[in-house]
Amino acid sequence: MVPRRLRDLRWSQEPRPALLAVPIVLIAIVTVVDILAPSSVHLGPFLVSAPAVTASFAGPRATACVGALAVTAQAVVAAARTSLVDLNHSVQLITLILMSAFVTSFAARRERHERELVQLRSVATAAQEVVLKPLPQRVGSLRIASVYLAAESEAQIGGDLYAAARTEHATRIVIGDVRGKGLEAVGDAALLLGAFRGAAHRQADLPALMAFLEGTVSSNLDDPAAPDAATEDRGEAFITAAAMDIPDEEPVLHLINCGHPPPLLLRHGRVSALEVRSPAPPLGLTEFVDSELSEETFAFEQGDIALLYTDGVIEARNREGTFYPLAERMAGKAGKGPDALLTGLCRDLLRHVGGHLGDDAAMVAIERVPRPS
To answer: Which tens digits make up the pLDDT trace of 325-371?
Structure first.
């Protein structure tokens, strides 16, 4: 990701010859036509468009060179038609020099901003890799794929989260969605991910792990030093989450759902929702709702694919206001592995919304496969 952006910056600093040819050809045409035009016609002012066009795609050095070429061309026109000290051509030369200097300074400012933007993007990418680490593609008897689609084109991280951890005989996976956006949501997501990674391999069972995560989230919301404590009501901050425990040997998965959209299971071309009978409230709201954190067990056989996702996927709408039919589209991609499944769903989702999501979206696909020998 970062190398592509660095290439973009180098492209602005070292423009392609085809682009630089545009202002040069423009200067040549204006110069020739101006020399051949009647004495009452003056095309010199059009030369300022050459450095102005160059500043839109090139750096200050290329812009200054084109500006100098335009000034030289204007001097050639003045010498050919009258003289360099002619009042009309003198004014045109001075104006062209000033405008070339102005657009050159504009190009320098734009290049500096582009460099700063590249640095910020690099920092955001590094932060994403720390907060939202890529999931392993293969863990025991599972193949895993994950994707994060940010609603803002310049954003890299947000309030959606996912993580995986190993226990002695199972793989644990969590997905969540923090209420809100911005840096506060990123901070809450980082808090939950850090708690999960620190405790997932220590807690004996899934309910104990989720209880620990609930305590972590609730204690943070109660902390008077938290940045959102003075501006947000206690009952308005929460994190929806779903956690799976997938044993290595048993063809099952254990699930706890805390106010999160139910995972989907793809089996033999048919999709079903893994609806728990006793869903728990979102993390951070358990003190307001009398509910237990109990896990439920579902069959998860070889060849099955479980899909965890956030509400940014199913709440994505097209121009007609129709929600994205995730289960239907998932069924249409049966027979593919988790990587191909997510690739197809992402393309289809972006096509559905016209290329722009209204909310961050995350998906994790898990397939049970034979254990490596």
So the answer is: 999 999 988 778 899 999 999 999 999 999 888 888 999 999 999 87
